[in-house]
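ok so for the tutorial part 2 we go from a plain amino acid sequence to predicted structure tokens. step 1 is just haveing the sequence, like this:
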Amino acid sequence: MMLLSCQNQQKKIVYYEYNGVVITRINDFPKDRFYYGKFDPEVDKLPESYIESKFSGFDGGMGAYLIFKPNKHVEIIREWGNFSPVRLKENLILIDTMENIKFIHWRDSAKGNLKNIAYVSHVLDLERKTNSNEKSQVTRRIKNNSN
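step 2 — the prediction. this is what the tokens look like for a chain of 147 residues:
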């Protein structure tokens, strides 16, 4: 008998905040959406501008970094997975074409001192542990959850 363990597939709202800027993530396995600003989809109308990550529910996933810039813009650097911009505005930027060697150098230079950077993953526990270990100063709150 084979048992498969999947992440809790309940929709979650995750807020990432740094220096007064908030990114709202709608974690709706196997699809995530990242919005610039703080939104509660039960109360607020979600903007038409966002970055979407879709992945297969069985063997897919995603990993990326949110970089909070001094100019109040946020960049998402894709590590792996499928990310698509939807009507993006200039305050939320997707970087998904970085060459592998350039990405490795960038990631190594930030290692241990993420400060204004947060790692995001389809596995929320891995995300929390990675950001804690790497000393990220980006706060993360999950709506209706204590993580």
